[in-house]
Amino acid sequence: MRTSIIIVSAIAAVITGLAACNTKANDSKTATVVSLDSSALVKRGEYLVNSMGCDDCHSPKRMGAHGPELIPELRFSGFPSNGQLPKPNMEEVKKGWTMLSPDLTSAVGLWGQTYAANLTSDETGLGNWTEQNFFTSIRKGKYKGLEGSRDLLPPMPWFVYKNLTDEDLRSLFYYFKTTKPVKNIVPAPKPLTAL
């Protein structure tokens, strides 16, 4: 009987010890996730932005020797408020074609004409946005991330990006908040009837 008590006590001590070690390991993992600083989020956000092609639509470009090249000082500022565009061929649009501006910051389709948003840290971009606005914009496809606002329009693929993790969206938001602010009020979209 005494041997049984010693064995049971020893097993209980081992189980308690393992549980304590496991709890410390879990606490350590939790602390690591919680203690991710903003620089780690910014670095991850930069990686995502460069992988997902945000520049393709949101950064003005000029024609260079090898085609469109980013204009570094206007990166992520969206369609320029003073931008000039060729007149779209509405006959082709009515047939179902979509047209893109030469630098890809504007698109015309059956929905009308849209202009890529300013994503810089300026107040005319994401400067006044909260993290919740960013999440609502991407997860629910809402203009300026405001509940009850209009839906985001093509060609913005928010319905694809909505599947990103919270950490990825947070990283994108942190990164955009560190970008060079560019004052640029992007024009409002135009309905097809206005074209």
List the helices and strands and how they pair.
Elements: H1 2-34, H2 38-52, H3 54-58, E1 61-64, E2 67-70, H4 90-94, E3 99-100, E4 106-109, E5 112-115, H5 131-140, H6 158-161, H7 166-177
Antiparallel strand pairs: 1-2, 3-4, 4-5
Helix pairs in contact: 2-7, 5-7
Overall description:
With 195 residues, the chain is mainly alpha-helical. The chain has two domains: 35 residues; 158 residues, no CATH class. It has seven helices and five strands, in the order αααββαβββααα. A three-stranded antiparallel beta sheet has the order 3-4-5, with no helix packed on it. Strands 1-2 form a two-stranded antiparallel ribbon. A hairpin with a 2-residue loop joins strand 4 and strand 5. Helix 2 crosses helix 7 and helix 5 packs across helix 7.
Shape: globular
Task: Record the strand order, biggest sheet.
Answer: 3-4-5
Element order: H for helix, E for strand: HHHEEHEEEHHH
Largest sheet data: 3 strands, antiparallel
Structural class, by secondary structure, is mainly alpha
Rg? 25 Å
Strand content: 5-15%
Taken together, the total number of domains comes to 2
What's the total helix number? 7
Helix amount = 40-55%
Give the averaged pLDDT, no decimals: 86
Q: Can you give keywords for this protein?
A:
single chain, 195 residues, mainly alpha, 2 domains, three-stranded antiparallel beta sheet, 7 helices
What's the short story on this structure?
The protein has seven helices and five strands. By secondary structure, the chain is mainly alpha-helical.
